[in-house]
Design the sequence.
């Protein structure tokens, strides 16, 4: 879709079919797109916004590993980055990722093995069935903008029901600045035509900050915190009321102020 058309339509959220979501997409093209997204995610500090919460929770789990599940993990770059964080800082972590796509799970598993990382991946439909339990932290990155409002609420409810301590959701903010950054970044950082087409479309499907706050309230996430950080991203954090020690968004110095309440 032409950039001027997307630009003019940013006033209203618009979900448009993306190439990567098509079941007929060639698996090789799918995996090439996932590799391109991994490069973009690394430069936009996706994992950095999760790291403070991981460190804090890991410090409160003496004698046992902190179990983390990344929902809709794609090619597993966030999971692998968290596993490397654990290795580098001596944190006891057990990091898993799940995704609906068998191609994504296969790529994530193969890449983690090649890097010698203790990370596990499995196929799961986060919208069609409850998430597995036993995880103190459940994360989700750059997936919410693919969902309709009702589906997004379902995902947040299921993450909240499954986590033992905290959930973190990171995603795009719908804005003209993000559209420009995404359009340029997908062309500079990836040769995948899938990424170059889908990236700008994703911005049109993203939520604005006030819309995320409404989603969280509708999903029953009382006390959720919301932070905005560069480049045009948000981090939603919610802690179980019976686990106040998990409180904090995990955004660290990247946050631009709490938007809770």
Sequence:
């Amino acid at each position: 879709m032409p950039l001027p058309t997307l630009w003019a339509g940013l006033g209203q959220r618009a979900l448009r079919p993306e190439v990567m979501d098509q079941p007929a997409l060639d698996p090789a093209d799918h995996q090439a797109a996932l590799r391109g997204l991994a490069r973009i995610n690394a430069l936009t500090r996706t994992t950095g916004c999760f790291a403070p919460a991981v460190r804090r929770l890991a410090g409160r789990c003496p004698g046992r590993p902190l179990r983390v599940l990344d929902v809709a993990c794609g090619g597993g770059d966030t999971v692998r980055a968290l596993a490397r964080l654990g290795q580098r800082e001596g944190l006891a972590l057990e990091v898993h990722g799940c995704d609906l796509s068998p191609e994504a799970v296969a790529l994530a598993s193969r890449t983690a093995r090649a890097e010698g990382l203790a990370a596990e991946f499995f196929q799961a439909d986060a919208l069609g069935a409850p998430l597995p339990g036993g995880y103190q932290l459940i994360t989700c990155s750059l997936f919410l903008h693919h969902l309709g409002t009702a589906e997004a609420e379902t995902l947040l409810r299921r993450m909240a029901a499954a986590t033992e301590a905290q959930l973190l959701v990171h995603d795009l903010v719908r804005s003209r600045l993000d559209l420009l950054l995404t359009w340029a970044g997908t062309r500079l950082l990836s040769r995948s035509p899938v990424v170059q087409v889908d990236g700008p479309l994703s911005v049109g499907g993203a939520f604005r900050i006030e819309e995320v706050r409404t989603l969280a309230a509708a999903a029953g996430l009382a006390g959720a915190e919301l932070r905005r950080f560069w480049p045009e991203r948000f981090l939603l954090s919610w802690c179980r009321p019976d686990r106040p020690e998990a409180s904090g968004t995990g955004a660290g110095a990247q946050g631009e102020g709490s938007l809770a309440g």
Summary: The first strand starts at residue 66 and ends at 71.
